[in-house]
Amino acid sequence: MDAKEAMLMKIREIPALYIGKPSLTLLCTFIDGYMYRQYEIYGDDHSDYKVSFQEYVQNYYNVSRTTDSCCMLILKNSLNEKDAFYKYFELYDLYKAHFGCHKIK
Question: Would you list the domain boundaries of the chain?
Answer without folding.
Answer: 45-98
